[in-house]
Amino acid sequence: MVNPSSKPFAVITGASTGIGYHLARIFAENGYDLLVTADEARIHEAAKDFEAAGAQVRAVQADLSQHEETNRLWREILEFGRPVDAIALNAGVGPSGSFAKETDLSDELNAIRLNVLSTVILAKHVVQQMVGRHGGKILITSSIAGTMPTPNHAIYGATKAFLLELAQSLYYELKDYNITVTALKPGATDTEFFNRSGMEDTKVAEAAKTSNDPARVAQQGYDALMSGEKEVFAESLSTKAMGVLGGMLPDSVKAAQYKKAAEHEKKPA
What we know:
Radius of gyration: 18 Å
CATH topology: Rossmann fold
Largest sheet: 7 strands, parallel
CATH superfamily: NAD(P)-binding Rossmann-like Domain
Number of domains: 1
Number of helices: 10
Strand content: 5-15%
Strand order of the largest sheet: 3-2-1-4-5-6-7
Shape: globular
CATH architecture: 3-Layer(aba) Sandwich
Helix content: 40-55%
């Protein structure tokens, strides 16, 4: 157990880099103590930055694509000794390429376990705790990809659609318990995601470098969560426009656009 504190307590997954890192920083700057997790050792370096913002921080390195690691993380959360006031379920990955010819089944199953199963497990535990206390805040990182067909990124898009549906359903199910559930739906964002997903050579990865800044995505997600919003497209005007106009376009058009953006560049022979 950490030293006693009157501060609220937040948990952030995928907090070593990108959107998750900035979410943790923002929570710390707004008076939260933290438990942060990622599957890499740099989570411990990131924790030092959050401590510099005045937070008590526990850093846990855990691979949430593994069921036993997700359970271990929940035990670590309980050992913090404080009820969870807010959780940002942000960790995620997505193999890229043709489902029939290029992607590996084991990578796809790991993505499902990380994006979907770990989120469901942690949400289940947290929701049961929050309902008993009649209050709490849950941020689930979906994606604009969860609102459309995603050829060449089929498993990722499917998991993000699941997370969007989960967040929206829980929003209505839990609102009478004073629990806020917000779906964060970023567009392509300049993070480590594209390196980890093998998408460095795609048009969508190139676009991410100049479109959505992870710090601003995180700030908009945090603000939406604190305002009790059901969902937010973040962060650039183009992403927000895509989110609004996407509902007016036929799936065939959206699928063609996404497939072209997610295709790997052909290297000269």
